[in-house]
Automatic annotation (TrEMBL):
<feature type="domain" description="4Fe-4S ferredoxin-type">
    <location>
        <begin position="334"/>
        <end position="363"/>
    </location>
</feature>
<feature type="domain" description="4Fe-4S ferredoxin-type">
    <location>
        <begin position="306"/>
        <end position="333"/>
    </location>
</feature>
<dbReference type="Pfam" id="PF04015">
    <property type="entry name" value="DUF362"/>
</dbReference>
<dbReference type="InterPro" id="IPR017896">
    <property type="entry name" value="4Fe4S_Fe-S-bd"/>
</dbReference>
<keyword id="KW-0479">Metal-binding</keyword>
<dbReference type="Pfam" id="PF13237">
    <property type="entry name" value="Fer4_10"/>
</dbReference>
<dbReference type="GO" id="GO:0051536">
    <property type="term" value="F:iron-sulfur cluster binding"/>
</dbReference>
<dbReference type="GO" id="GO:0046872">
    <property type="term" value="F:metal ion binding"/>
</dbReference>
<protein>
    <submittedName>
        <fullName>DUF362 domain-containing protein</fullName>
    </submittedName>
</protein>
<dbReference type="InterPro" id="IPR007160">
    <property type="entry name" value="DUF362"/>
</dbReference>
<dbReference type="InterPro" id="IPR017900">
    <property type="entry name" value="4Fe4S_Fe_S_CS"/>
</dbReference>
<keyword id="KW-0408">Iron</keyword>
<keyword id="KW-0411">Iron-sulfur</keyword>
Amino acid sequence: MKVSVVKADNYNIEIVDKAVNDAVNLIGGWQNFIKKGDKVLIKPNMLTNVTPEKAVTTHPEVVRAVIKAVKNMGALPAVGDSPGISNLKSTAKRTGILTICEEENVPFVYFKQSKAYNYMEGRFIKQFELVDCLSDFDKIISVAKMKTHVFMGVTGAVKNLFGCIVGTDKARFHLRMQKHIDFAHVMVDLYQTIKPTLNIIDGITAMEGQGPMSGDVVDAKIIIASSDGFAADLIMADKMGFDAEAMPIAAAGIEEKRIVRLKDIKVVGDGKDEQFHFAKPHTYKSMQDTYVPKFILKLGQNQLTSKPVINKNCVACGRCSHHCPPKAITIIDKKVNIDYQKCIRCYCCQELCPHQAVDLKDGLILSLLKYIGIYK
Ligand code: SF4
Ligand code: SF4
């Protein structure tokens, strides 16, 4: 399996265009993936309505480069997503992606309605409710953002496909799959159901720390491409300086023997030797249950995880309360309260808060394990 990593200094239109095309040419060229007349859905990461320099969403110039390449193949591109939270239209505008679509005269598809898609080999899910228009397209290209993720460790090409689940339907998956590894198995099933033709990750600016929304912007100056989203994500996590195969989605795929191993990936491109040391999400170690003796696990799962705590930035907007899957958040007299007995530690509140008002605080046992050195 091949993954290309190509350097790109900034979002200058020519630089991005060259980097995206070089990255795809190194893994066989566009003709390997797209045929004349194909209807192609380009799926960027449009998590919420923020501007591109926040590194929360795929940069519009990367989307533009993919649109142009697909058009050059004589195919018919469209761009679409369903943000987890904010209004579709305002997100499309604020992220700059709607403007790019208008300039390139390409339709932007608002994901609104769902329909059932079967995946009988699924380990956890044999039928997904996904955006209805998915089946109208011949090919799908996942155009993701290189970021850390407080629940999944990292988010790249595979997790990007979670946006094909329409709007707030996403919360149901957090309710059903409360453990990192269970949710990760669902992501493996989701990827196999959608099976993108091509995966491109925008890592020109990336996010470290408390991603996917409240982390810090970091310049990695790379574009990653592969026909295999798991391989692209493994290399992305490895470049971040993380234990790539221990990230929950990779660990789930490896356990199911469904994904390539890191050692079997051939990395090509002028960025292949780049190495970074991204700040890890606060929850990084608690994702790896194998570090924890079983008797401690039994003692109290919640004490082994970080819990969300509201800080002084809170303006009581209610977004977290509205989207909390088990309805553990209430707001009374403009004060946010979290019922920790109900809280399933999905960190949607931390992910979705527009004011960075949710901190993650270690549970008692997790603090103790860090203190005595089992977790570092
Ligand atoms: S924590 Fe954030 S999302 Fe929740 S009410 Fe406060 S500002 Fe809004
Ligand atoms: S309070 Fe936050 S972490 Fe807990 S269940 Fe609700 S959204 Fe998830």
